[in-house]
Amino acid sequence: MILCLSGGIGGAKLVLGLSCVLEPNALVVAVNTGDDFVHLGLEVWPDFDTTLYTLAGVANAQQGWGREGESWRAMDALRALGGEDWFNLGDKDIALHLFRAQLRAEGLTANACASVIRERFGVAPIITPATDQAVRTTVHTDKGALSFQHYFVRHRAEPAIFRLDYEGAATARLSPVIHAALRDPSLEAIIIAPSNPFLSVDPILAIHGCRAALRGAGVPIVAVTPIIAAAAVKGPTAKIMREFGLPVSGAAVAAHYNDLIDGFVLDRTEANDRDAIEASGVTCAVEQTLMHDDAEKTELAARVLAFAKICVKRQGLKQ
Ligand code: FO1
Predict the structure, then answer these.
(1) For the chain, is the Cβ count within 10 Å smaller at the N or the C terminus?
(2) Tens-place pLDDT, residues 33-89
(3) 254 near 274, Cβ under 8 Å?
(4) Separation of 46 CA from ligand 1 center, angstroms?
(5) CA nearest ligand 1 atom 2, residue
(6) Alpha-carbon distance 135 to 140, whole Å?
């Protein structure tokens, strides 16, 4: 069984590839909750929903979020009322938010909601929010402190970031679904998907006890680079690295995860950095990590899994 930490569009692509390679009950995906927010009274879980729609085969792939074949009648009517229209919600997407609000009103935990929703969409792999508590990313920028969606959508990720806070992480706990996966004797590896390290992965790693729980599982932890040819495929990863004064490279991402990972999958455009990464104690594989279509998502997933299984668990990293 494989546990994958994921968020955003890039992560969902590898998760799809993993779901094509693994038996349905052999994949558990912990999705980032830092992007989540209550909007128009509805709980919106973008990273969970993007992953759900992707595995259910109903995602709007070129948009990177939401569903294909959407209509926007509710948004049009809301706009006519003068309601908030900066965050676009399709009619079918709204149905999911209404359904989730009903489950939450019945007292279901986040992971229980995810389980009901996954079953209704016929998605077999376990996708679950990384925590049942509220962990939300606050983006501190030259335009002030912004909630994640205000930064990402309203301000189009343009403000320069000087700090990120993951509100609630210190008192949050990893989802019981994740703890069960970490204790499962069939667990073979933990994969960190090619997601934005700062916006999609760090909000998961910041959860109280998360790093120790991951290291304590005793299986290799492998991260896949989100940087290709010194640029991010999509989204603000490269921009944030520059704002944090980091070189825009896979090697800088490997260094960011250095106290956690045993292996790193570097893109072949940056193969020259392999030795430096290995010198830091992290085993490094070099692959084509750009995923144009489902075949390439599946191929990369297969290669990442083969690499993870031969990765040697590093000793001496703090639990
Ligand atoms: N991203 C946008 O850039 N504009 C939108 O209007 C928008 C709406 C939206 C609705 C539901 C949903 O699940 C995601 C949505 N996203 C939108 C993406 C969202 O900002 C995600 O947080 C990003 O995909 C980053 O993970």
Answers:
(1) C
(2) 999 999 999 999 999 999 999 999 999 988 999 999 999 999 999 999 999 999 999
(3) no
(4) 6
(5) 153
(6) 16
